Amino acid sequence: MLGGVCGAVSQATGIDVTWVRIGTVLCCLASGIMVFVYAVAWLMIPMEGQSSNIYSRAIRDKRGIRLVVAVLVPVLILLSVITSTLHMPFLGFISWPTLLAAGLVVLIWRNANDSEKEFLDHEVVPLLGTDVHGQGRRHLLIVRIVVGVAIGAMGIVLLVEGHTTIAALKPVGGAALVVAAAVIVFGPWWLSLVRDLIAERQARVRAEERAQMATHVHDSVLQTLALIQRSSDDPQNVVRLARAQERELRAWLFEGRPPGVISEEANLLGEGVSLLQRQVEADHGIAVQVVVVGDCELDEALRALLDAAREATVNAAKWSGADQVSVFAEVEPDTVQIYVRDRGQGFDRAAVPQDRQGIAQSIEARVSRFGGDAVIRSAPGEGAEVQLRMPRRERVK
Amino acid sequence: MSTSGEIPAPRGRPRIFLVEDHAVFRAGVKAELGDAVDVIGEADEADAAIELIGERLPEVVLLDVHLPGGGGLAVLRGVLPHHPEVQFLALSVSDAPEDVIDVIRAGARGYVTKTISGPELLQAVYRVAAGDAVFSPRLAGFVLDAFAHGSAAPAAGLDLELDQLSPREREVLRLIARGYTYKEVARDLSISAKTVESHVSSVLRKLQLSSRHELTRWATDRRLV
Fold first, then answer.
1. What's the longest Cα–Cα distance across chain A?
2. Is B214 helix (H, G, I), strand (E, B) or coil?
3. Which one of A99, A144, A251, B75 is at 20 to 30 Å from B90 when CA atoms are compared?
């Protein structure tokens, strides 16, 4: 059930697995040696469908062996001292094999491969109650504390009630001294082991971070570089790609937004404006310079204002002939204003062809529907500026 | 930010010092500025920069904000106390507000991002060489935001004049943030270009001297990393 040992035994001998299990459990209860035997079998018998057993990997795990030895040896010495002074040989009889088995289980844990680990995670961790991620974490903690306190209290009561004479306390004092001696002798070794384990863990975390970073860089930067190499004869496309990539990288480095996961739905004016910037830059290959002063939440009216600003920016990108459009948004206590300005060829409002007039009207209609207004300033040769204003319904803060 | 030729080239080419750790970018800047300036030195880290600038005394230092050895701030603090006549123009890839505000507060006369075009950079260099301030639209936006309108009454003991932008200064900044050149600002407000310059310089002075705590708080609030 735990390591699949019983299953393997039943397969080899032909006895039904249930009987093997019952036998094993009985043996374990009768004598701790069976637990040890079980763990050894676990080490030696390869998992079904695999050629190498865990033992062959464990023998190479120097650090794991060191860890087990460092903990086992002192504990065993302690146990033998305590059991002999307290005249309780039965304690030693059970605990020796159990301890050895525990050491082996640690080795197994460290050297199990992924599929085995997954099995262990599912089957064993909940039994031990060490699953820190589970929902029952709090619950388990309480249970552990209650059990611990109860056992501790029982021990104290037994000691105090049972042997009130000084003479009887002597062995206990001796045992405490031996414990202290063990801590002094083995303490630094234990500490260094713990440090090793922590370092190992940190190295793993770093490796994971690196891998994640590599994925991001590959998905964004390397892909773009490949695209740029392929379109080296189209300078405008190269500029567009580089600009989009710069934007994305900046969002990742300075704003913590992972590349390629840019939310299309903005909730704040500032987000909305930078979304507008990204979209227009990507679709029209033109630089959009954005300055936002203040910020506020977007409501229906402000979304309309943003739509109008996008319309104006796209117009500038399409018609003005300029290579840059400036968008300035300012949030004031009672109004929000957005200015879209280009230095392109400009136009004479009266002489504008009908289709562009239509777009201009759509800008104006969009904002006036919510009580805002739009002013378009332009003259041939002087670029154009669209000034949009929207009163704020709610004063946030 | 502007069309070339707006500011006439000063007599003699301005002597420039480049502090920048990316060799490729240094070469790019030199190529873009070409013969219009006289590049009298380069450094790629703070200590060397402080020493060389002290020796050669350039008119304008183009300073990368993110520099090994303490960043651009270390250079500003190392040079300005001894050579206040050296003008600094900060350059950065980062638009992070706290970087911008910090270098300006430490004494840089202006701030431009590295995506700036050659002619625009040259304009900025001329302007700084002439002792004026260079406000990119973005910097103007930051300042407007930092000196936010109608913020709570300044605490007692603060210099009122230093802690508030005048309505006119606010207007000028707003136009710069909208992408106007100084000349266009002047025309729009019917004032002279020189007056625009003086407004901008006064804003820069306020930015550098104001003890307004909102300024620091604003920058840290906007810390993006």
1. 114
2. helix
3. A251
Do residue A341 and residue B178 have CB atoms under 8 angstroms apart? yes
Tokens of A58: 């464990």
CA distance B52 to chain A (A): 32
User: CB-based contact (8 Å) between A381 and chain B?
Assistant: no
Amino acid identity at A207: A
Residue predicted with more confidence, A330 or A77: A330
Close Cβ partners of B223 (under 8 Å, ≥ 6 residues apart): B96, B98
Backbone angles phi, psi at B91, to 5 degrees: -125, 140
Q: Give the residue on A whose Cα is nearest the Cα of B137.
A: A291
| Pairing label, strands A384-391, B134-135 | unpaired
Asked if A328 and B150 come within 8 Å (Cβ–Cβ), the reply is no
Length of chain A in residues, anyone? 397
Separation between Cα atoms, residue B209 and residue B17, nearest integer Å? 26
- DSSP three-state, residue A362: helix
Mutate to test the interface with B, among A293, A296, A332, A387 (most CBs of B within 10 A): A293
CB pairs under 8 A between A and B: 50
Complex confidence, ipTM: 0.75
DSSP string, A161-204: HH--SHHHHHHHHHHHHHHHHHHHHHHHHHHHHHHHHHHHHHHH
Q: Measured in Å, how far apart are chain B's first and last C-alpha atoms?
A: 27
Q: A251: nearest CA in chain B?
A: B224
pLDDT at A65 over 90: no
Query: What DSSP designation does B15 have?
Result: E
**Is residue A336 scored above 90 in pLDDT?**
yes
pLDDT in tens, B159-185: 556 677 888 999 999 999 998 888 889
B187 touches chain A (CB under 8 A): no
pLDDT reported for residue B189 = 92
Q: How far is B111 from chain A, CA to nearest CA, in Å?
A: 15
Given an 8 Å threshold on Cβ–Cβ distance, is A341 in contact with B150? Answer: no
Residue with the two structure tokens 């350059």: B91
The answer, yes or no, to whether residue B157 has pLDDT greater than 50, is no
CA-to-CA separations, A78 to A92, A180, A269, in angstroms, rounded = 10, 10, 69
Could you give the residue ranges of the DSSP H alpha helices within B38-178? Answer: 46-56, 71-79, 97-105, 118-129, 137-146, 160-163, 167-177
What pLDDT digit, counting tens, does each position of A238-267 carry? 887 788 788 778 777 777 665 544 445 677
pLDDT at A46: 59
Burial per residue of A323-359, b for 16 or more beta-carbon CB atoms within 10 angstroms, e otherwise: ebbbbbbbbeeeebbbbbbbbbebbeeeebeeeeeeb
Contacts of A255 in chain B (CB under 8 A): 224
